[in-house]
Amino acid sequence: METILSLKNLHKKFGAAIHAVNDLSFDIKKGNVYGILGPNGSGKSTTLGIILNVVNKTSGSFNWYGGNLTTHQALKKVGAIIERPNFYPYMTATQNLALVCKIKRIPFTKIEEKLKAVNLYERRNSKFSTYSLGMKQRLAIASALLNDPEILILDEPTNGLDPQGIHEIRVLIKEIAQNGTTILLASHLLDEVEKVCSHVVVIREGVKLYSGTVDEMVASQGLFELKVDTDSEKLMELLTKFEGIASIKTEDDKIIATLNKSVSASEINNYLFHNGIVLSHLVKRKPSLEQQFLTLTNKN
Amino acid sequence: MVFIYFILLTSIALIAAIKFDIGPVKFHLADQGIFNFPYIWHFNTYIASILKFFLLLVIVSMMANEYSNKTLKQNLIDGLSKKEFVLSKFYTVVLLALVSTIFVFVVSLILGYSYSDFNEISIVTTDLEYLFAFFVKLVAFFSFGLFLGILVKRSAFAVGAMLVWAMVEGFAKGMLYWKFDTMVANVMQFFPLEAMSNLIKEPFTRLGAVKTVAKQVGEDLSKDFSVQPLDIVIVLVWTAIFVYASYVLLKKRDL
């Protein structure tokens, strides 16, 4: 698979104290949907800023298309939406998009099509400053899709949008991903990443904690949630003796038993019943991306 | 802003209307020869270059808006290189300077043909180097503004920085005159604003009427009013420095 973007040992320091990006390396391959996950201030936006030519790296390297193109040439093939929509307020939607066409060296013919796609065609001759936030966001999407990009880069795309806007963006991301466009999505919203991404890079304080597929990240033998009305100490004791249970902890009034090999719910129920424990609650489930993420980012 | 600027440029023509009519003393400025070819080139470019501050505001706010609207960031993300960005702004500067020059040329031509005592082509076309000097001066001045706009990112502060620099030059000039007395002009001519103002020297003492008065009080005002090639070179070098410094600044900066 063709590598679109490759980061090697990237560092970014702001002054001496802040190490925003610390030895970050990962590859973006064509056709995948990547999520960059991390808490606020973890270096996601800085990383995107570096590859988008607006933030200077301190050391390390990155290259687009195997280094065959300079960064600004490569960016002509990229669509990016970062933070708020940025356009000239005194120019109309059409004029703003025409400028983007000039920069990306593409014909003006796409403008009409993309404006229609985001429902702004009727307002195409209104100045950008007269638009509502939702309309501005939609114009940003039209602008990012103007060149039918090979890779779409989104930084917190649903930030500050109303529920309808959030839903529209998610539908759009899924549609674009289905067309085979590579997507790089930075977010701290885990369900967002879990829903649309195939691969994930987790960073915290600029350090990469995990990179791989979403499936691998959430893959584990799962866990049991158990509850007993009477003798919970005996239950704990029995569980520790059971082969296949890695750890036990109490959470509220429930007992959480994490597995290290495949155990079915009926097996454990049978075992406990034979040892004189009748459960009032038993659920087997897989950990969510959120739990995995918290486990990863809380480690010190 | 640009509109006001061109209206003001046109208003040079209003000088023609200045008339004093106090009893026996009749004074009509246009009759004093200020609109005579080729002197009009010198006079009008000098007066018009005072108005360059209006376009400075345009240039500086253009840069400040690129920052505050974050369109600079967006343009870079869309695939513009920083070099192309600085060049595009420099082209705007050149365009504004060129349009101003053409405008001053046309206004002077009309005024000249209305009031000048000499209308022969050979006389009309002499001293056109003042227009070239005017153009070079504007390009340099606006490039300075462009650089300051990129440096401080706020239009008001950038204009302030320009004023502070003018004061710095004035202070340096004063100090040099105080300490050394001679050779000061040789040093001062290398300062950017001083070099720009040297391009077109004040035209008033060249005026026939002023000269006559000066001669009567025994003062010799004869000096070289022509555009000096060295001044042109110094100003062009400063222009190059400002544009290149803008690029370096932008390249080093995180947006």
What would you say this structure looks like, in words?
The complex is a heterodimer of chains A (300) and B (255). Chain A is α/β, with parallel strands linked by helices and 300 residues long. Helix content of chain A is 35%, strand content 30%. Chain A has helices spanning 44-51, 71-75, 93-104, 110-117, 133-145, 163-178, 190-196, 214-218, 232-241, 265-274, 289-298, and strands spanning 3-14, 18-29, 33-37, 59-64, 78-82, 151-155, 182-187, 199-204, 207-213, 223-228, 245-251, 254-259, 279-285. A six-stranded mixed beta sheet of chain A has the order 5-6-7-3-8-9, with helices on both faces. A four-stranded antiparallel beta sheet of chain A has the order 11-12-10-13, with helices on one face. In chain A, α4 (110-117) crosses α5. Chain A is elongated and about 75 Å long. The model of chain A has no long low-confidence stretch (mean pLDDT 85). Chain B has 255 residues and is mainly alpha-helical. Helices cover 70% and strands 3% of the residues of chain B. Chain B contains twelve helices and two strands. Chain B has a two-stranded antiparallel ribbon with strand order 1-2. In chain B, a hairpin with a 2-residue loop joins β1 and β2 (25-28). At the A-B interface, α2, β5 and α3 of A face α4 of B.
Helicity level of chain A:
25-40%
Order of H and E elements of chain A = EEEHEHEHHHEHEHEEHEHEEHEH
**How large is the share of residues in beta strands of chain A?**
25-35%
| SS-based class of chain A | alpha/beta
